[in-house]
Amino acid sequence: MKLPAMPTSDPTFERAPAPRIAAARLSPAQSVPPCAAQHAVAQHPAQRAEHHPAQRTGQHPAPRAERHFAARQAVRRGAGWLRLAAWLLPVAVLSGCTGMYVGAQGERSTSSGTLDEDILAQVDVHTITPQVVHTQTQEFDAARELARARTDAQLRGTPATPYQYYVAPRDVLNVTVWNHPELNNPAGQLSLELSGRVVDERGYFYYPYIGRVKAAGRTVDAIRGDMANRLAEYLTEPQVDVSVLKYQGRRAYAVGQFKSPGPLPITNIPLHVTDLVTQAGGLTDQADLRLARLTHKSGVIEPLDLEALYRGGDLTQNVLLQDGDVIDVPETRYNKVFVLGEVDKPQSVLLPYGDYSLSEAISDAGGLNPSTSNGSQVYVMRAGDNGRPQVWHLNASNPAALVLADGFRLHARDVVFVDAAGVTRWARVINQMLPSLGGVRTVQGIAQ
């Protein structure tokens, strides 16, 4: 059934906006069927019930009602903007707290209550400048020259004393008295090892005619002379020969990153550090040559720089080993530099032989990330001798600063950290907040 068109002579109807429809005015020549108006109102029941009571009764809204409706809409839009600002304010604040942030830029004054002041109260912050790099280079060269001078002085001042082996308990001696086979092998043993004389724990062994013979702590020449004098009472001009058949009394130990670690006997041939490394099968690929240690039987620990010995020719490190000495070679994981933060490949880098600079560490980690890094906030952190961490700051926003980084030497266990840019922290906070915002909108939609 066709309904009659609604009259368009009422001027109030021309100013009544339809819900959620762009503002448009109807000319007197236009007409709207009642069914279309009812359909538009039916799509928004909440607005129909609250804001357009005239449409529900078939009447046209009054001009005062239209103004009230527009005012309420403006208030709602303002409230929406306020809610958006309330969300963005904590996001902006939290963006400065996301991830790691050092917030220190070298030796400078700070205001009270800032993050920089808190950090400077706990650590010593320095700026990498040309003067700092020059001073560091001079100190390093002076230390190298001093070590070389000490090495030369020790080599020149150490007298070349002949090496002698002293018999120890558990050694097996071979004693021969010429022209007297009954003394050499009284039991008729076919094996030379079975006919040897074992030195007991008290340092003695037994021999016919003369009884107990003192051996521990004496050289084979001293033992030979003592036995010849005592056998002269029973034999005419005895010719005695004494030698060590098995070395079992004195040992040195190879511990750590050796291919064949374990005890090694100390014999009549001098055993130096290089000899022990060779007899232990050499070092593994994970051996840290710089941090080896020599522990004596007395408990005294000495540093042993195998890298200076093998690659620098420092013969003072090739010490003569004594009974009970232990050489411990640790793993290379203690000789690393850690590169963290906004670099392409955060990683730990093994220190190579020789110098290792800050620019090399950053380059080995893939360089600064061009999208997320803040080149003005590059830090090197290390443990200080005074018990306070030392932080070195480099402003690498200018590529010329990488020349300074190439002259700044890194130490083992240094931490290189590249801070994130402000926009990067902002984006990370937004990414973390988006799921929560989506959940809030879902809950609000369910509530409505």
Strand-helix topology:
Layout: H1 11-14, H2 34-42, H3 45-50, H4 53-56, H5 63-95, H6 115-120, E1 124-127, H7 130-157, E2 172-177, H8 181-184, E3 197-198, E4 204-207, E5 211-214, H9 220-231, E6 240-246, E7 251-256, E8 262-265, H10 273-279, E9 292-295, E10 301-304, H11 306-310, E11 326-329, E12 336-341, E13 347-350, H12 358-364, E14 373-382, E15 390-394, H13 401-407, E16 415-420, H14 422-447
Helix pairs in contact: 5-14
Describe the protein in words.
There is one protein chain. The protein has 14 helices and 16 strands. It has 448 residues and is of the alpha+beta class. The strands form 4 sheets. The protein has a 6-stranded mixed sheet. The N terminus is likely disordered.
The poorly predicted ranges are 1-58, 95-101, 107-115
Q: How many domains, in number, for the residues?
A: 4
Largest sheet, strands/sense/barrel: 6 strands, mixed
- Count all strands and give the number: 16
Q: How far is the first residue's CA from the last residue's CA?
A: 37 Å
Mean pLDDT: 76
Name of the CATH first level of the largest domain: Alpha Beta
Which class best fits the helix and strand makeup? alpha+beta
CATH topology of the largest domain: Outer membrane lipoprotein wza fold like
- How much of the polypeptide forms β-strand, as a percent range? 15-25%
Considering the protein shown, what is the CATH homologous superfamily of the largest domain? Outer membrane lipoprotein wza domain like
SSE string, helices as H and strands as E: HHHHHHEHEHEEEHEEEHEEHEEEHEEHEH
* Helix count, DSSP H or I runs of 4 or more residues: 14
In the CATH classification, which architecture of the largest domain applies?
Roll
Bulk shape: elongated
